[in-house]
Specification:
- Helix content is about 35%, strand content about 15%.
- Strand 3, helix 2 and strand 4 form a beta-alpha-beta unit.
- The radius of gyration is 15 Å and the shape is globular.
Length: about 120
């Protein structure tokens, strides 16, 4: 018998990208925690990653073909930006995308361009 209201995890392009990012970071010695979107994590980026020599990163994963920001992210991200928190938005798990983690955070730019209707 199937449980009532089982929690279902969506398997889509973003989840596949996220799994690739996590695998690459963990292989490079990063400690990673995935946010699962429960009531205490609404609006947070998808992944928190830290490395002894490289510091920490808040990582938001987006599908390059079609992406948006949740209502909770639209409230939380600007507050994070305004208090100096960097968010790195990645559109894939390629070496080029992962290299963004070693440049200044791109979250503010990507987020506000999306609000203006300009993708990437």
């Amino acid at each position: 018998m199937e449980p009532i209201n089982p929690r279902r995890f969506r398997r889509g392009p973003e989840r596949t990208i996220q799994e690739g990012i996590l695998a690459a970071l963990k292989a490079a010695g990063w400690f990673c925690i995935s946010a699962h979107g429960n009531e205490y994590q609404l609006g947070l980026p998808d992944v928190w990653a830290s490395h002894a020599q490289k510091g920490y990163r808040w990582i938001e994963v987006k599908n390059p073909a079609a992406y948006s920001f949740t209502e909770a992210q639209q409230k939380v991200f600007p507050r994070m930006f305004d208090t100096g928190v960097g968010i790195w938005i990645l559109f894939g798990d390629t070496p080029e995308e992962l290299a963004k983690l070693f440049k200044p955070a791109n979250g503010r730019e990507v987020f506000y361009r999306w609000l203006l209707g300009v993708k990437k």
